Amino acid sequence: MSSNFPAGQSPESPSITVLSGGMGGARFLQGLLHGLRSGLLPFAPDTTVNVVANTADDLWVHGLKVCPDLDTVMYTLGDGIDPERGWGRREETWSVKEELATYGVEPTWFGLGDRDIATHLVRTQMLEAGYSLSAVTEALCQRWRPDVRLLPMTDDRVETHVAIGDAEAPSGKRVVHFQEYWVKLRAEVPAEALVFVGLDQSAPAPGVVEAITSAALVIVPPSNPVVSVGTILGVPGIREALLDTAAPVVGLSPIVGSTHVRGMAEQMLTAIGVEVSAAGVAGHYGARTQGGVLDGWLVDDQDHEQVERIRAGGVACRAVPLMMTSPEATAAMAVAAVDLVR
Ligand code: FO1
Question: Are 342 and 210 members of one domain?
Fold first, then answer.
C-alpha cells in the first residue's frame, strides 16, 4: 500500500537513505547527489535521497533553538553554507553577536551570525506555535530546496553532554553541553564520559523508520560515529529498522590512519573506549549478520592492511581513496560504496 510510504515515495521509486551528522555528512551528500544526478550511480538519477540527521548537537542559546547538523546539511545542499567554516551562512555578518558581547551576555563563545539568526528565529517561533521539529525542518527546506528529504532523527529533545575533569569540583568532574566542549574547549581536554540526555526516551521522527525500511540502500557517511551516527542509532527503533530493512547498509570510515579527518571523532571514540581506527569503528558498528548495522565498510587506501580483519568480522570491505576533496572525488566514494554491497 503506497499509503505506507512517506510523501513522494512509492513502492516503485527506490530511495537512498543516509544517516548524517554535520560537516562530514553534508560534504558526503554533496558528492552522492552529484554522482546520482549525473548518472554515475546504478540508480535512476531522480532517486529520492532521505537524510536522517543527528539532533543531539542541538542547543538553546539566547532563547533560540539551534540545530547545527540539520542546518549544516540544509545550508550545504541549499548552497547557503560558508565554505571555509563548513557551518553557518556565507556572506555572514555578526552585528547581533557583537552587541550581545557588548552587553556581556554569555555565551560569547558560540558564534551566531545575523543571517543564521533568522533561521533560528523562524524555527523557535514555529516550535513555540506547536509545530514539530520535523514540520519546522520541512518548512525551512521549502526555501533552501536541499534536493533531499531532510528528517530530524527525532522530534524529541535530545542533547549530548560531556563529562570533563574539573579540579575545583568535589567530584573532580563537571558536565558541559557538547557545543561547549567542541566550540569553547576546542575538544582539547579529554572527554571522560558522554551523556545523551533524553535519548532513551526519544522516538524516531515521522518518516524516519519508513525511510530506512523502504530504502533500496542505506549509507552511513563519514560522520562522527559517536555523537552523530551513534546518537541516531541510539534513538529507540532505529537500530531495529536497520536490522529489518531489505536494503544493504554500507558505511565509509571517518577515521583515516590513526585519527579523524576533521572534527573530534578521536576524542569521542576514546571516551567510549573504542579503538581509533577504521577497523575499530567498523567493529563498533558491528556486522548486520551479527546484530550490528553494517553489510559493507569502505576504508581509505592507507588502511588497506585492516581490510582482512574487517572482513573477518563479517563486514564486506574495500580500501579506496576516502578524501572528500571535491564532489567528483566524493561521488567516486559513493560509487565504490554501492559496488561493495550490490
Ligand atoms: N562551530 C565553531 O567552531 N564555532 C562556532 O562559534 C560555531 C557556531 C555555530 C552556530 C550555528 C551552527 O549551526 C553551527 C555552529 N558551529 C560552530 C559548528 C557546530 O559546532 C558543529 O557544526 C557541530 O555541532 C559539530 O559537528
Answer: yes
User: What average pLDDT does the structure give for the chain?
Assistant: 95
326/337 Cα distance (integer angstroms): 17
How many angstroms separate the CA atoms of 234 and 189, rounded?
25
- Name the residue at shortest CA distance from atom 13 of ligand 1: 68
The whole-model pTM stands at 0.96
Q: Do 342 and 263 share a structural domain?
A: yes
Claim to verify: residue 106 and residue 2 sit in the same structural domain: no
Where in the sequence is the domain holding 253, given as residue range(s)? 1-55+206-342
| pLDDT for 1 beyond 70 | no
**Which residue's C-alpha comes closest to atom 12 of ligand 1?**
68
232 with 266, same domain?
yes
Residue 212 to residues 6, 47, 240, 255, 325, Cα–Cα distance (Å):
11, 15, 10, 25, 28
Are 42 and 85 part of one and the same domain?
A: no
Going from the Cα of 68 to the center of ligand 1, the distance in angstroms, rounded, reads: 6
Q: Atom 21 (ligand 1): residue with closest C-alpha?
A: 68
The per-residue b/e assignment along 65-102, b for 16 or more CB within 10 angstroms, e otherwise, is bbbbbbbbbbbbbbebbbeeebbbbeebebeebeebee
183 with 125, same domain? Answer: no
183 CB near ligand 1 (under 6 Å)? yes
The tens digit of pLDDT for each residue in 125-180 reads 999 999 999 999 999 999 999 999 999 999 999 999 999 999 999 999 999 999 99
Q: Which of 57, 98, 179, 264 to mutate to test the pocket of ligand 1 (most atoms within 8 A of CB)?
A: 179
| CATH number of the domain enclosing 63 | 1.10.8.240
Quick one: average pLDDT of 253-260?
95
The domain tally of the chain equals 3
> Is the Cβ–Cβ distance between 233 and 200 less than 8 Å?
no
Residue nearest atom 1 in ligand 1 by C-alpha distance: 183
260 and 276 both lie in a single domain: yes
The pLDDT of residue 342: 87
Q: Is the pLDDT of residue 90 over 80?
A: yes
* Residues 293, 243 within the same domain: yes
